[in-house]
């Protein structure tokens, strides 16, 4: 805490931005390759890798978990017991995070672990000391620098004997519902390139290799149920794209098919197919995001799909490998928008949008506080995944890029403006090009200072530091356009909780946060809530942006009072849980403040009437006192990463503690949006109303004789006899714009010893499912 006070004094004395617009900065070493990431709180980003031979060791085995510090860019290793390879993940309403599923235990070289389970995988491996993660539910309570990281309360709870899914799921989708529970959809059972055999005579189960069901966390007595859409989309249905709609239905997109699904009744309403037969799901891996939800669009969701691949169906191959040399097949540039629930009641249709600047597979969308969307990472050609051969290149020694099925890394980010006129929505002017290839198993996420953390890349079955595209541990930080100034807003009065409807609240922006006319600044100020999501495989599961409605009062001292509405009174629009609140003045965001949306519990969320806001009050004589908007070339690395600490609200068990740490300030640039000069006294939201209302890890492992094994088991990803590590690649010389073409588990932590779940959630074993039931009626504390 003393260190935080010293930093606060320093920031108040010198509100300079650390970072240059359009540039990359060193983000430090991640210790484990960043296949998955999420922002836990003001201090920490959590990083997860698959179980593999990382040099970093913890408790006598390679580490595949770490936590990265905003301020120091250093990592601390974390022990994860099960294999998290290609899991899914999501937040919970109280600010905890959960990962779901993964793969069986693996040994060096991606081989099946030393204790086979008789189902094409293994329960444990003695070398890597990883357990089968295919049914695991892992829960983490994010901790801050002030917490004791050696405590079990700050570590992953990972014990499928206690908490697990009903089904094995690898590459499953995860999407929160309006009550904070999570829908888990589809996935593989074991390893493979795409989710089918050839010939595809069993699209439902693929001989026991595919999982076509959905289930919920917590289960609360609900059994896993077949989703017909997973059968229809057999093959290309891993990591389906899922977005909850205001009605409570869910947009689901896989292969080239689209539907609206009702989680309550399991009814499916088909929507149009993807134009051009462009696949966006893994391993085509297009960039997909929900566009910002704003008062101007009445919080009506529109989803944008960009990139991926239009490779013909027969070339995708099967579980073992693709039937073509994918690295020669150009990725798509195509972008399509879809509004699944149009307000006018019309039928949903895909709408052609501007093409991307270049084709990308494995591109990733990051929604920025100014409402624009950054795309990073990916390749010009090919797909995600890796293999030792294809249907046409039969030997690993002939594979030109090692195990990578993609080529032509795209190192230059691009910016998409959803409100720009058609034909002018994409730009990369002024953006540096990274010399690090970010291909398969890369990740990116928005940080609380509104920069973007980029890490990972490992298109290899195990750690390989000498191949063409090697395992990568180097993180980077990218600074978007709004880092061009030297001051940024420093709001105060942001609450720690936002409700669905209810009384508005006031945020104060001091005159020192901007320059020029106060009226103009007030007209160009927005208050936005962003959930960065849980990121893996070019996806940010749970990522959303919502602009709160507000009016304002311009005060004589140049300060602005923002009269701000609560969240729209429909939890389906922005599900309960953690988020960051930014105040954006003239296109320049404040540092994000962590807030909890909703009650903090898995339950039917309380809702109130839409907030009623007063009229705006202008004052022509008032002005800001900031020192203009000149650029600042100070590099983050020379400032100890000070800009990464914001005024953020940390949540701890049974109490909300405001840490109030104010970050550095950045200056003024022109915003794309102006609010009306004087807004009338009105209800802040005119919208539709929300609808009413395991197996053991040691002796108990055994074969499931009820399922036949598929013809290709986890050895599809293991090293072949002719595998070598001779191919070299230098990140500084590669063409980044395209080259053409049985140790038991520890005891349960204290919060489970009395049959209570993490963070005090009451748990009872569900006799009809492997998953434990979590009582939604029991209040529980919050913690970051």
Report what the structure shows:
Pfam families: Glyoxal_oxid_N, GO-like_E_set. Residues 726-736, 769-784 have a biased composition (Polar residues). Residues 716-784 are annotated as: Disordered. The chain crosses the membrane at residues 646-670. The protein is mainly beta and 784 residues long. 3% of the residues lie in helices and 28% in strands. The protein contains 4 helices and 52 strands. A 6-stranded antiparallel β-sheet has the order 7-6-3-2-38-39, with no helix packed on it. The radius of gyration is 25 Å and the shape is globular.
Q: Short summary of the structure?
A:
Helices cover 3% and strands 28% of the residues. Strand 19 (257-262) and strand 20 (267-271) form a beta hairpin.
Tell me the strand percentage band: 25-35%
- Rounded to an integer in angstroms, the radius of gyration calculated over CA atoms is 25 Å
Low-confidence stretches: 1-18, 630-784
**Coarse morphology:** globular
What is the β-strand count?
A: 52
Structural class: mainly beta
Helix content: under 10%
- Mean of all residue-level pLDDT scores: 83
Sheet with the most strands, sense and barrel status:
6 strands, antiparallel
CA-to-CA gap between the ends?
16 Å
User: What order do the strands of the largest sheet run in, or round the barrel if closed?
Assistant: 7-6-3-2-38-39
Q: Treating each run of at least 4 consecutive H or I residues as one helix, how many helices?
A: 4
Pfam families: Glyoxal_oxid_N, GO-like_E_set
InterPro entries: Gal_Oxase/kelch_b-propeller (IPR011043), Gal_Oxidase_central_sf (IPR037293), Glyoxal_oxidase_N (IPR009880), GO-like_E_set (IPR015202), Ig-like_fold (IPR013783), Ig_E-set (IPR014756)
Biased composition (Polar residues): 726-736, 769-784
Protein name: Glyoxal oxidase
């Amino acid at each position: 805490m003393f260190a935080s006070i010293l930093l606060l004094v320093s920031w108040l004395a010198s509100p300079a931005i650390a970072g240059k617009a359009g540039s990359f900065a060193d983000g430090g070493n991640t210790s484990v390759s960043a296949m998955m990431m999420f922002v836990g709180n003001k201090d920490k980003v959590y990083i997860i890798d698959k179980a593999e031979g990382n040099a970093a060791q913890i408790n006598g085995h390679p580490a595949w978990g770490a936590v990265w510090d905003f301020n120091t860019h250093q990592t601390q290793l974390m022990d994860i017991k099960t294999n998290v390879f290609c899991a899914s993940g999501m937040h919970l309403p109280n600010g905890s995070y959960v990962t779901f599923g993964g793969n069986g235990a693996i040994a060096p070289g991606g081989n099946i672990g030393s204790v086979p389970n008789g189902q094409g995988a293994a329960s444990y491996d003695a070398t890597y000391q990883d357990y089968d993660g295919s049914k695991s539910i892992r829960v983490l309570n994010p901790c801050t620098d002030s917490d004791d990281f050696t405590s079990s309360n700050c570590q992953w709870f990972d014990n499928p004997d206690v908490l697990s899914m009903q089904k094995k799921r690898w590459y499953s989708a995860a999407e929160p519902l309006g009550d904070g529970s999570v829908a888990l959809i589809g996935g593989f059972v074991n390893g493979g390139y795409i989710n089918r055999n050839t010939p595809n005579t069993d699209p439902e189960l693929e001989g026991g290799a595919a999982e076509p069901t959905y289930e919920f966390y917590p289960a609360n007595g609900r059994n896993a149920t077949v989703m017909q859409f997973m059968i229809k989309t057999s093959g290309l249905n891993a990591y389906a794209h899922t977005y909850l709609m205001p009605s409570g239905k869910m947009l689901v997109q896989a292969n080239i098919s689209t539907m609206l699904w009702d989680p309550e009744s399991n009814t499916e309403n088909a929507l149009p197919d993807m134009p051009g037969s462009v696949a966006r799901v893994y391993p085509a891996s297009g960039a997909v995001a929900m566009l910002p939800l704003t008062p101007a669009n009445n919080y009506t969701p529109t989803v944008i799909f960009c990139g991926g691949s239009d490779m013909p169906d027969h070339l995708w191959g099967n579980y073992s490998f693709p039937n073509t040399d994918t690295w020669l097949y150009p990725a798509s540039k195509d972008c399509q928008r879809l509004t699944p629930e149009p307000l006018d009641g019309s039928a949903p249709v895909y709408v052609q949008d501007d093409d991307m600047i270049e084709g990308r597979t494995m591109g990733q969308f990051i929604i920025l506080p100014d409402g624009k969307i950054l795309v990073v990472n990916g390749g010009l050609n090919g797909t995600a995944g890796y293999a030792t051969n294809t249907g046409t290149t039969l030997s690993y020694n002939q594979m030109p890029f090692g195990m990578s099925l993609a080529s032509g890394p795209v190192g230059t980010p691009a910016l998409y403006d959803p409100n720009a006129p058609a034909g002018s929505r994409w730009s990369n002017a002024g953006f540096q090009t990274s010399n690090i290839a970010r291909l398969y198993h890369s990740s990116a996420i928005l940080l609380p200072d509104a920069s973007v953390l980029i890490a990972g890349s490992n298109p290899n079955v195990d750690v390989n530091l000498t191949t063409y595209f090697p395992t990568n541990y180097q993180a980077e930080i990218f600074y978007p356009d709004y880092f061009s100034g030297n001051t940024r807003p420093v709001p105060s009065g942001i609450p720690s909780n936002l409700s669905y409807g209810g009384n508005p609240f006031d945020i104060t922006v001091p005159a020192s946060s901007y320059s020029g006319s106060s009226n103009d600044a007030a007209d160009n100020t927005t208050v936005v809530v962003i959930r960065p999501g849980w990121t893996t495989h070019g996806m940010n599961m749970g990522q959303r942006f919502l602009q709160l409605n507000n009016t304002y009062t311009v005060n004589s001292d140049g300060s602005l009072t923002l009269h701000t509405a609560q969240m729209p009174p429909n939890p389906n629009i922005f599900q309960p849980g953690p988020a960051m609140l930014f105040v954006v003045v003239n296109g320049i965001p404040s540092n994000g403040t962590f807030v909890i949306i909703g009650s903090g519990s898995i339950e039917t969320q309380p809702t109130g009437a839409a907030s009623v806001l007063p009229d705006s009050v202008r004052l022509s004589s008032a002005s800001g006192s900031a020192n203009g908007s000149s650029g600042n070339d100070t590099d983050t690395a020379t400032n100890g990463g000070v800009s990464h600490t914001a005024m953020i609200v940390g949540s701890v068990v049974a109490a909300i503690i405001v840490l109030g740490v104010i970050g550095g300030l950045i200056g003024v640039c022109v915003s794309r949006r102006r609010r009306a000069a004087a807004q009338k006294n009105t209800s802040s939201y005119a919208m539709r109303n929300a609808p009413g209302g395991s197996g053991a890890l040691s002796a108990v492992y055994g074969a499931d004789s009820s399922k036949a094994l598929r013809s290709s088991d986890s050895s599809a990803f293991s090293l072949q006899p002719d595998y070598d590590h001779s191919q070299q690649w230098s990140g500084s010389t590669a063409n980044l714009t395209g080259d053409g073409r049985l140790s038991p588990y520890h005891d349960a932590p204290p919060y489970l010893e009395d049959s209570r779940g993490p963070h005090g959630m009451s748990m009872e074993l569900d006799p009809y499912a492997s998953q434990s039931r979590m009582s939604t009626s029991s209040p529980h504390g919050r913690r970051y």
